[in-house]
Amino acid sequence: MSSSNTTRMIIDCDTGIDDALAILYALRTPEVVVEGITTVFGNIDVQQAADNTLRLLALADPGYDIPVALGASKALVRELTGFSTHVHGENGIGGVQLPPSRQVPVQETAAEFIARMADENPGEIVLVTLGRLTNLSLALDLDPQLTSKLKKVVVMGGTVFKPGNVTPVAEANLWGDPEAADRVFTSGLPVLMIGLDVTLQTRITSEHLELLKRHGREENKSIIDFMEESLEYYFEFYREANYLINSAPLHDPLALMAAVQPDLVTTRRMKVRVEHQGEFTSGMVVADLRPQPKVGHFIEVAVDVEAERAVGVFLNAFM
Questions:
Q1: Which residues pair with 286 in a beta bridge?
Q2: Rounded Cα distance, 112 and 309, in Å
Q3: Which residues form the catalytic set?
Q4: Contacts of 236 (CB under 8 A, 6+ apart)
Q5: Of 75, 79, 121, 132, which has the fewest beta carbons less than 10 angstroms from its beta carbon?
């Protein structure tokens, strides 16, 4: 099925605005084969995330069937505290109304789907997580051998050197289920963490959207219209939250791009744990940066990014 330069991928997401951009990028990148998309609660509830995903698949029409599986509707142990509608809009995609899809989700849960696909294709599947790590944690419960079956896990989440975006030290995806995040980071899975250290540097702007409108391929016109409409909402949030003018970080797309083109980021091997007991630090990535680190398990952490090239890679998928 796959040639050496193809990336076979499962995308695990809580389909908000930047998740949508990441999915569309994957569907428009010839060297990516999306084997399935699993959804999780986060930006919105898990059903809405699946509905958004199915509508995006209908919009992009990838030309092959991509199963969509519903996953966790809440964290492993924490109570649900609501959704990020102030960031992503009531429906998760900035209020944009996409036509409904005729496709329906598969019967398997997200955890079952991930575990089965990895088992049937050992060493072949790259899992890119763009939301809470609940589904992957549950998949590890189903199959502890999963750690040796997935080719790689690219996690959008966390931060080591930059402040958090939900609390002073925690990024939203890890904060939303810190127990699951700690489980994944200490499991022995081959994790690459793409966090705020790099995603905040990688921004899409209104100028970039103008460029897409002028030079986008004909078959991508409706996709580009969707991006423009949903990003309007996102830009407004980032203006209020981060003082960004007509721009927003490409959090999720960068994780997806790094899964395909690892040389976009510079990584450092670090021993980490995810704090899940502290009153002020829950969801924080605690990296042991001492010369002889003792706490935590090794993962790869992206510490720098070729931001301009990354944005170019993203735009190029649609041009």
A1: 273
A2: 36
A3: 14, 251
A4: none
A5: 79
